[in-house]
Amino acid sequence: MTAAPPPPTRTDRLLAALAGILAGYGGLAVAALVAVVVRPEAGPVPAVGDAVVDRTPAGVKDWAIRTFGESDKAVLEFGILVLLALIAAGLGLLALRRRAAALAGVGLLGALGVLAAVTRPDSTSAGDALPSLAGAATAAALLYVLIARLTRPRPAAAPRTDRRGFLLAGAGVAAGATAATFLARSLGSTRSEHAAASRSALRLPRPASPAPAVPPGAQLPVEGISPFVTPNKDFYRVDTALVVPRVDADTWKLRIHGSGVPQVRVFTLPELLRREVVERDITLACVSNEVGGSLVGNARWLGVRLDGLLRECGVRPPSRGGPADQLVARSVDGMTIGTPVEDVMDGRDALLAFGMNGEPLPFAHGFPVRMVVPGLYGYVSACKWLSSLELTTFAAYDAYWVPRGWSAQAPIKTQSRIDTPRPLARITAGTRPVAVAGVAWAQHRGVSRVQVRVDDGPWQDAELGAEDGRDTWRQWVHRWPATPGKHTLTVRATDGTGAVQTDRRADVMPDGATGLHSVKVTVTED
Ligand SMILES: Nc1nc2c(c(=O)[nH]1)N[C@H]1C(S)=C(S)[C@@H](COP(=O)(O)O)O[C@H]1N2
Ligand SMILES: [Mo]
Q1: pLDDT greater than 50 at residue 352
Q2: Would the pLDDT of 385 be above 80?
Q3: Residue-wise DSSP of 80-125
Q4: Structural domains present in the chain
Q5: CA atoms of 235 and 62, how far apart (whole Å)
């Protein structure tokens, strides 16, 4: 004896929502497992996350970096998971009454995952669709099975739905999905262990051309000033990678090709390490750095000269009749960064770097090989996790950031920053002057002068730290005989060509912020 299913109770509806979430969990677990085999970045969550990052307006991106700092990507992935859980619960509810519509919904989510994965710039094969396809199929099957327990017609004497069967099946799904997630994690970590092992095994060669020792006077004895060399762990990080690529140096290759390169050339890491290795101090800066911001750091890089390597591949700069004016660097995660060929071949220390402050590049900073070009913002020069270099023209190709509103070419603008005192500091006016100090940078032009102004007073020369080179920042200090009251301290630098840093305020978009950094402080009597 059977009866038509009565309207679902509150409990049934809760269980149906749970069914949706469990089916989603199972689907994501299977997708993650398939992604380990196909390509980790092709998993639905990383792929959708990357697609969101790409389509996020620069202003929102800057806000996210400022608000969440280095966890901005974790926050994004968490947000995607929460949203998915809500949708899954909704589809579970829908499945109670309209199973076909709910299954179509799962299919739609799967299609979104596929679309995100195959339209990634680093996607090279249709195989990237597999994780989302497998995930959606699994989720649909699980939803079907679980909901059947809640809607199956029952003998009149029995409870209206098979809740016991549902809970058993649900527990099974949860356990299976958890097991699959762990398996995916451990398989994924085997791969990243290979990468980690290749990094620990890397012995950095001695430079044939070492960097001169940092002059002792480059680091001023002032508390609160940024260290002259930024330790790797404190070095700012800016990139679009949700998952830091962990590249195995043993299988890494660099391809050099394009217009003016007669024959495609491929280099392995040992081949680069055997070349003439140079060591240089270079200060890196991000175009998204606001006036007074912290997206700038100075490191000692070890690598090979890019000009020599390119020349060996047949490349001539435009000034020597070469057909390509743009060098497009591609990374393993699909980033593209365009740099003027003229700049990297004009004699400056443009490097393919594998060492940073005495150790192999950290994964977050581009292991095994990245570009570093003195004088250009990172987004037009400093490609991390480098995989190829293509010679082309600015007319023929827009690199990643260009269609997003950033300039195709962007030399670093002269900037100076007050590190100490901190904004809104309360200082007691003692007998000794207060050290107002910080850093100034104008890479490849050098810093020749720094001046400080108190309130609307005259510009006064600050004492400069010794110059390490014109590609690095320079420390400065002004000993200020502070008087009680509220004061505004402002700094400006002059570059090596004699040009004074402009006080005109410009936004970071499209080619770097300008304006003067100032700090308000309160000085009290003893
Ligand atoms: N592959 C890749 N390389 C990249 C980026 C990126 O998003 N992906 N960001 C660039 C930007 S905008 C900057 S400022 C520098 C930052 O380098 P860092 O993270 O080592 O400080 O890397 C550049 N290289
Ligand atoms: Mo940047």
Answers
A1: yes
A2: yes
A3: HHHHHHHHHHHHHHHHHH-HHHHHHHHHHHHHHHHHHHHTSTT--S
A4: 10-198 (no CATH), 216-404 (3.90.420.10), 415-524 (2.60.40.650)
A5: 18
DSSP run (H or E) holding 388:
strand 386-392
Nearest CA to ligand 1 atom 19: 237
CA-nearest residue, atom 21 of ligand 1: 237
**Residue 243: left if φ>0, alpha if ψ -120 to 50, beta else—which one?**
beta
- For the beta carbon of residue 481, count every other beta carbon within 10 angstroms: 10
CB 406 within 8 A of CB 287: yes
Write the CA distances from 80 to 41, 46, 85, 151, integer angstroms: 15, 10, 9, 30
B/e letters for 283-294, b = 16+ CB within 10 Å, e = fewer, are bbbbbbbebbbe
Tokens of residue 517, six digits: 């950094």
Sign of CA dihedral 400, 402, 403, 405: positive
Ligand sitting nearest the alpha carbon of 54:
1
Average pLDDT, the chain: 93
Report the separation in Å between the CA atom of 466 and the middle of ligand 1, taken as the mean of its atom positions: 29
Mutational pocket test of ligand 1: of 73, 239, 296, the residue with most ligand atoms within 8 Å of the beta carbon: 239
Bigger pLDDT: 207 or 53? Answer: 207
Over residues 452-476, mean pLDDT: 98
CA of 245 to the centre of ligand 1 (A): 12
Q: How far apart are CA 358 and CA 299, in angstroms?
A: 9
Residues listed for the chain = 526
State the Cα–Cα distance between residues 62 and 69, nearest whole angstrom.
Answer: 10
In angstroms, what is the C-alpha Rg of the chain? 29
This prediction has a pTM of 0.80
Least confident of 41-50, 195-204, 417-426: 41-50
Q: What pLDDT band is residue 340 in, cutting at 50, 70 and 90?
A: very high
Atom of ligand 1 nearest to the CA of 331: 1
What SS3 string covers 256-312?
Answer: EEECCCCCCEEEEHHHHHCCCEEEEEEEEECCCCCCCCCCEEEEEEEEEEHHHHHHH
Select from 246, 263, 461, 449 the least CA-distant residue to 367: 246
pLDDT of residue 67: 81
